[in-house]
Amino acid sequence: MTSEEKFSSPATPEDAAAILRQIARADSIDRVNSLAKSPASSLPVVQTMRMDEARYRMLIELLPAVTFMASFEEGLNDVYVSPQVESILGYTQQEWVEDPVLWYERLHPDDRNRWNKEFAQTVAFATTLRSAYRFLARDGRTVWLHTEARIIRDERGVPLFIQGIGVDVTKMKEAEQSTIEYADKLERTNRELEQFAYVASHDLQEPLRSITSYTQLILQEFGSSFTAETRHYFDRVVEASGRLKNLIQALLEFSRVGKGDLKLEPTRIDSILNQVIENLYAAITESNATITADPLPLIFVDRTYISMLFQNLIGNAIKFRSDRPPAIHISATHEHDCWRFSVRDNGIGIDPQYKDKIFIIFQRLHTQERYPGTGIGLAVSKKIVDLHRGKIWLESAHGEGSTFYFEIPDRFGRGVI
Amino acid sequence: MIPPILHVLHVEDDVGDIEMFRIAADRANVGARFIVARDGEEALQALNSNDPSGARCPHVILLDLNMPRRDGRMLLTDIKQDPRWKLIPVLVYTTSNDPQDISECYSKGASCYIVKPSELSELQLLVESLFAFWGMVELPRSHSAT
Question: Are A89 and A137 in contact (CB under 8 A)?
Fold first, then answer.
């Protein structure tokens, strides 16, 4: 029976439904148009459908996605699916359409409940279905299809079809999953490391104190009867213990930075600078240092940490001075999405080949005798800048002073000068 | 003037620290009586005991923070919440210089917070000052007189 024969009598809504189903199942524009010649096709809903169909049919074949349509009349088993089902899931259109439950079988068992629920919601509330489901391709691969679908209803509001599109987002989902797993692992490892550094530093301190105290006791009680050589050995022990103590303190300090969350608040950098200058008063006076600054902004940062950062950088600038009195200049410019600060000095400079090494904890470029210190100042500085999601780097040449740059991204707005 | 005998409950797990403190006290020739507890649990036992030698109510408690089992932070809370002991001055004596530890101890009612000195000479000075000070101040009389 051809479609023309079937519809020679006056058209009824049921006829319309039948035509619509057939239009949906049509596999070409020509077929769509021939169906539209039948009497039932004069019904407005069919006309509209036909025009839509013609337009969309073109696009359907071109989309890098699977489009589908299923009729409610047949309990969602009367199905159209676009040719891409073959490239995406490995089943031909024919196979897919011929086995009405194939799509449900290929729907991942863990996603079935969710599909049922979301489908029911779409039907009941006339909302668009928008969700991602996993399908098992023919070869067993899991394919994520981001699905958008709508219910097409007749004039009475009765659901006729569900029509939708499924985009293959497998690669994206997999990347997302790896990123989440990686982030989790990283977070765990970081926390363990921080815990470790903190606890280790604490536990290391007690025995060290015993070593120092008892050594000093020995020196006090018996030192006068020691030879100069023996006394010298003991001096070395005390000296080494002192260094170890400083290292442990430094490690503790380093592990404490970033232990809680950042407390971001509007902060005037010029007042931070004033405070830092006050803190470094002794070193500044002793070295006859001059500190100058350009106008400095008000930005969102963690006040305590930024203060620490400036104190580290300026303190270093004073410490690693040349024969001339230190002249230190701080400036700030707004680059497209961040504030870039610089701390420039006229000190001894840093060989450019070490410009990355210096930010590593405990890495030092000089011996203890010449420039005492533990070598964590810059590691802490880098940690602080990293916590603010910024960058820190150095431009310098040996003997020509150094300029440390760091950027703080705009988080809540540009800030003001 | 004969210095008063100060009864000190020394809560500390490190043997070296215990001994060093004692040596410094001896050298300073202060009048002191030490009862030692190696952690919070032992400290509570000592405070609860019926030992007439005065362990039940020390004049001051010298408290380390990082100890096994019940640590100093927990013990401080215990002491300051117990009506029998909450008036006893607690002198926190620890290696930790963590600002958070400091605020927490003061807010829990510690009388002072001392970071353990590493130099012997500093320790000597500290012990002398401590005993001189706490020998001079008035202590709460609510507990049994010794």
Answer: yes
CA nearest to A206 within chain B: B14
Any chain A CB within 8 A of the CB of B77? no
Q: Do A209 and B16 touch (CB under 8 A)?
A: yes
Triad A166, A171, A176: Cα angle to 5°: 105
Contacts of A93-101 spanning 24+ positions with Cβ under 8 A: A93/A27, A97/A25, A100/A74, A101/A77
Q: How large is the ipTM? A: 0.70
Tens of pLDDT, residue by residue over A225-238, are 999 999 888 988 98
Nearest one of A176, A140, A169 to A66, comparing CA atoms: A169
Threshold 0.80, pTM exceeds:
no
Report chain A's terminal Cα–Cα distance, integer Å: 82
Amino acid in the structure at residue A314:
I
Dihedral sign (CA A246, A249, A251, A257):
negative
What does each C-alpha distance from B109 to A231, A345, B87, B127 come to in angstroms?
45, 47, 9, 22
Q: Which of B23, B64, B95 to mutate to test the interface with A (most CBs of A within 10 A)?
A: B95
